[in-house]
Amino acid sequence: MNCVRFILDGEFVEIENPDPTRTVLQYLREDLHRIGSKEGCAEGDCGACTVVIGTLVDDLIQFRSVNACIQFLPTLDGKLLFTVESLKTDQGQLHPVQQSLVDYHASQCGFCTPGFVMSMFALYKTNPNIDRLSIDDALSGNLCRCTGYRPIIDACMKMTDYPIQDDSNPLIYESASNRSSNMSDQEQQAIDQLRQLKRSDGLTLNIGQRHYHAPNSVNELAQIYADSPSAHILAGGTDVGLWVTKQLRQLDDIIYLGNIDELNRIEQTDSFIKIGAAVSLTEAFDALSKHYPELNQLFRRFASVPVRNAGTLVGNVANGSPIGDSMPALICMGVRVALRQGQQCREMDLQDFYIDYQKNELQPGEFIESVLVPVKDKTWQLRSYKLSKRYDQDISAVCAAFSVQLEEGDEHSKVVDIRIAFGGMAAIPKRAAQTEALLKGQPWNEGSIHQAMAALSQDFTPLADMRASQNYRQQAAANVLYRFYLETRQNNALTNEQLDVFVERAALQ
Amino acid sequence: MKQPTQQQGSKLDKIQLRENAPGKADPHESAHLHVAGEAAYVDDLAEQVGTKHIALGLSQCAHARIKLLDLSAVKAAKGVVAVLIASDIPGINDCGPIIKDDPILADGLVQYIGQPIFAVVATSFVAARQAVRHAVIEYDELPAVLDIASAKRQQSWVIPPMQLQRGNSAQAMASAINRMKGDFSVGGQEQFYLEGQISYAAPAEDDCIRLWCSTQHPTEMQQVVAHALGINFNQVVVEMRRMGGGFGGKESQSAIFACIASVAAKKLNCAVKLRLDRDDDMMITGKRHGFSFDYEVGYSDEGLIQSVDIEMIAQAGFSADLTGPVVTRAVCHLDNAYYLNDVKIVALSAKTNTQSNTAFRGFGGPQGAIAIEVIIDNIARKLGKDPLDVRKLNFYGKTEQNTTPYGQTVNDNVIHELVEQLEQSSDYQKRRQAIDDFNQHSPVLRKGISLTPVKFGISFNVVHLNQAGALVHVYTDGTILVNHGGTEMGQGLHTKVSQVVARELGVSLSTVRATANDTSKVANTSATAASTGTDLNGKAAQNAARKIRDRLSVVAAEQLGGEPDDVLFENDQVFSNNKHMTFVALVLMAYQASVQLWSDGFYKTPDLHWNQKTMQGRPFYYFAYGAAVSEVIVDTLTGEWKLLRADILHDAGNSINLGIDIGQVEGAFIQGMGWLTTEELCWDAKGRLTTHAPSTYKIPTITDCPDAFYTELFDNQNVEDTIMRSKAVGEPPLLLPFSVFFAIRSAIASVANDRFNPPLRAPATPEAILDAIQAVREGREVL
User: Fold this and answer.
1) Which chain B residues touch A136 with a CB distance below 8 Å?
2) H or E element in which residue A65 lies
3) What pTM does this model have?
4) A118 phi and psi, to 5 degrees?
5) Of B239, B423, B504, B731, which one is the catalytic site residue?
6) How far is CA B248 from CA A40, B315, B322, B364, B730, in A?
7) Does the distance separating the beta carbons of A389 and B680 come in below 8 Å?
């Protein structure tokens, strides 16, 4: 059964023998001539291709925006797909998210508009309290070169005020803020359809010499990967997608994690929060934010909503990019990774996982099953600072994380223990071992902090590239260490308001 | 201070509509299609059977002779139908808009990394892109010139130097009370139209070509394609319904793709599409010119400029393209809103082995004007004055001190009252004081505020380009079709032109439809550029509609009585002799009386003259004005910053469409802010552009739009007889975000109590900001 099945506009769609790495966007535009979704970059950075995916979570439909340009077609299996063409009523009336954009002069050239419409549609369906911050969040992955965004923001503020007609389809027209307590027939029908598509076995596509496996269980996954260790593991595809669209690589053997319920779970015990390998960044950050609200700005600045909806936290960790934004904080938090190879399981500290540029401890056929985030130890103070040219959806020049355990002193507190980790400063996300050693046991004061700032240059010799020079990376890394000190010193500690230019964003929250 | 964003949109409702224009607050004519995904761009058109796709093979060397070009493996790759090289071009291998130094495909010599060498035609887009990788190319490397400084050392120019001089700057400098020397540089900018470059060519009978091309200049595409194919202009038809953004990047630089697609279509006798991947687009095409400046200024103790001597160098890239007119506009905008009595401007166009820089919204104007703003900012800080006071002191006068260095009288100056109004409405003085207080007590963060003015000249600097044509068809059901020489790239041109036609014929806007620009309808059109789209095409369409109205008036007077001159067209009715009939009824009656119900229209801008040699004349029909106040907060530890509030007052004359005009102003503001802050173009040591996709090149995103953003249109009417007394609005507001740059500069200067002028380069990335902070801390300054 080389067949992928999903639901589009209420109808079942079956695609036989699909090219496993054909993107959803190529499928829509070239096969269906559904040309509303646009290609602006083919790397998940502009949002012109945004579509919305519906999945069944806790017996309700969850709506999530994703970038169709880097989403492989077989990952649609078992899901609902909404595109910009899905929104008008049968009578041809525009959806409130569309009509509000028209009314507020929010489209100029119009090329980005379908993508904005779909990001707004996801916001409309999921957020009952839309404000400026949630708008910025939802649209952080959509580039508009014409409007300057102001009219789009206005449209978002007003879109849930638009009246909707009684006979319109609640699955599409009912906003989160106007949600009725009774499940509509249409939503129930969509849920039934999704249940019908649920596979009892995994999905396997064998197209000539090319294979796509989407197993249903971790055991099955472990077996398949042990048998074909050269296969590529696919989770969110926010990186793997670019191997295909930008590097033009042909991937002949893919194992997709998204259909494994066990890996889609977040479990909490007394000592840690366990985040499975298929858990999206969105869900992972939602869970972590409850324990570590001090990381909210980092979470928000991590890529964009469509990328966080598709990409996974474990994917970011496994990828091990030197500029990945989650690792410095995770390392400072003392996160452990749970690895699995066949029936063998092992755990290790995340900081020991990385060996060198794009090299890690994974053995052939071994994969990260989950990350284990310790619950918060209130004796530690944690911060992570991301530095980049742009606030939204940029790649860090430097991403820093600090965690310190202080003991109160007469004049200054004393450093009991400290962890300092950086992204963007070395070939891997890395701790500042020498600087940490220098600070341990020392008073937490101007004298030690300036010594530590100078010592950072012994720990790191960063590269220069288009994101920043070596000098900036070194200087800014030292300066954010100083900022951390200013925030945590015993006397006259500075507040966020005194230190963060984006604090008004937090105030809006 | 902060108000919810949604209240700002309602400004539209408050503005009194002075002159009746149907749909003065109506949305863009295609808005309902944009939001539904139904607006068709070139890549969305149904493809002809057997359509082939192209990918381009690009130079990997900045300057070299091609020693070996082995494309056998490319030809053998899966899906490949043909591979084209320079010798496959039957006509002229050049697509330069002015000077013929732009090869379509490199012929033996490559001049930048990214220059197209060959074209693969394949059965699919992906197959073509994959095949490109099989090429074997060997280069004999030549020395490469990669930046302005090396170009100057080697005297490497694409066009001869320009010079504009008035008075005696040397003498005035010598007698000036204060003198200051300095330098400044501003980077280029990628257009980043969301729709990449695309051309779709189909062969037609008798050696003709039909071309759908995302371009601001269909006529030029028609011409270069004809030259490349060695056929006549009347054998090429170019159609352009809408672009997904242009911003100047599709004025001349759509040509190379139009030519290659057409050559392939002709050779293979099938339809061929050339759509660029984003990275290829950014690697191949030119951007806004980066500039560097060296200046000396003489000034009084009050801050009055007594003499300016400046050398500006634009980075042209490997060919001339539009650099000549761009640099001319830069020279003509050095003055911005200021009277410069004794001034000498030398302007050079550096030839470098990089992408050939081209038009981008503002077209050199922003680069020229920012130089004088830097100079004024420096003078003010030197004198311990508020830069706003020094700005005001140097403004053009209304009746005296009102001649530009290029000899044009400024007879529509409203900068004094406009700035006065904005200073009040933005609460500038109070906020400036509050910021000073904040900075006194803030250990890490610093705020800055700045008010900067704009004066921008409207018209093509080349006089004969200021012409346009239109066709208006009235059909017998009373509906109207208008076609004109302008192209729609999102700026709302078709909406405004339709409004003009609706107003002339007294019908509702929904009666009028604008159609795709088509070289077989209106001939010999100018590029939709220089902000002139509505000025030119609106007038031409008005002319056409008026001819029809005149004919209809005769019929109406015959039918209703009265004189033709007194017939009134309003509200879909026609009035004469105290009687009236519907427009539709009149149209049908006229048709039955064999009256011509369609007409051409033509317009040329009057009274322009320009001598490029002496750089004197009246290059501009009028000036558009504006000003903005920006307030920022800067992190002195990291250089990160945020725009907290922006207040804009802009002069669009008597606005034809408020929503569209405010959209242009706000959009240009954020786009210009990107140019001066987040958008940094980087090339590596070999000359390879390393910022060639949105992952590395950062245009503003939604959070960059300030929480407090207040935009108003200045209450004004054009003193010249422009279409409905409106003013062009495309480019001028791009200069408004100078205020953001100077607010950042002011925040940085506060670190050393305003004693030093921060050597802040543009774009002001966090790194540039931190460098400047470091410099003022150490007492190093720009001077």
Assistant:
1) 702-703
2) strand A60-67
3) 0.97
4) -75, -35
5) B731
6) 18, 17, 10, 11, 11
7) yes
